[in-house]
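User: Fold this; tokens only.

Assistant: Input:
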Amino acid sequence: MGLLFGAVLYIAAECPDDAVNLDELIKTYANNASVYSFLESDDQETTETNFYDEILKGLKSSKNSESNPKKYFKWALALGKKRVAGIVSSQHRGAYDRAALTLGSIAESYIKQGQKGKANSIIREYYSEKFKRHSSFKKEVRAVVDRSILLSKAVKIT
């Protein structure tokens, strides 16, 4: 489900090369060794990297397809919000980095769709409103924003 989530965000953002968090999200799911455990390989890292490369190639080739990525984006948005809220509200501190990565990926996708206000709004919603007392989560969100040129230019967090 995670790889599909990332793929939908990636296609909705029109396959950006500059969305580092979105790229990291896809890479994380694509390189999940347990997903591909049915493959026998002496070189696990090469196999995983090839999956990631093949997935990106496929996503980029779908850029001009007849599908409507905005329709699927609504699904991914609902799923991503639920995932972030679930992790942080349950205080799964070991997963705060994944929750922040999910939030940052959604925001990057918004930016690449020309919706900087919505990107700023979703970050602010989780950072300053819903989880304002979760300092460990806020630290991870700041790290996600800081490593992304897209987010650091468009999103203001205090």
